[in-house]
Amino acid sequence: MATGGSAIRGTRVGAGPMGEQDHGFHADRIAVSYWDALGNETVRHFAAGIAEEEIPDVIDSPHSGLPAGRDQQNPPAMAKAEPYKTHLAYVKERRTDEEAEALLQDALRQLRERRGQ
Predict the structure, then answer these.
(1) Edge-to-edge strand list for the sheet holding 41-47
(2) Which of 16, 71, 76, 115 could form a disulfide with 67 if both were Cys (CB 3.0 to 4.6 A apart)?
(3) 3-12 residue pLDDT tens
(4) Cα dihedral 83, 87, 92, 94 sign
(5) 8 Å CB contact between 33 and 43
(6) What whole-number distance in Å separates Cα of residue 46 and Cα of residue 6?
């Protein structure tokens, strides 16, 4: 039994002529280069009509994760990494030793009253 062929088998519905190179209108754009401290270049594309002040000066480099700037000779330095702080460290920043002692004594007084001591 012979099978019949179909000229459109394997093509997408709505597809244009085979070998079509242009798939719509491409807006004008500009390429902006960014460099990180390791010398990696990243190119970002923006609409050609965008105002200069809307183009970011610094981005995160996808290669290294470091900040990348538009000046190749002076890339931005990595921001100082803050060490992990515990909850107690944050509390000590907000309270003096005298305030902490007063709060502790108040909490102990309330606890003793509840226990009937």
Answers:
(1) 41-47, 29-35, 67-69, 58-60
(2) 76
(3) 556 666 666 6
(4) positive
(5) yes
(6) 44
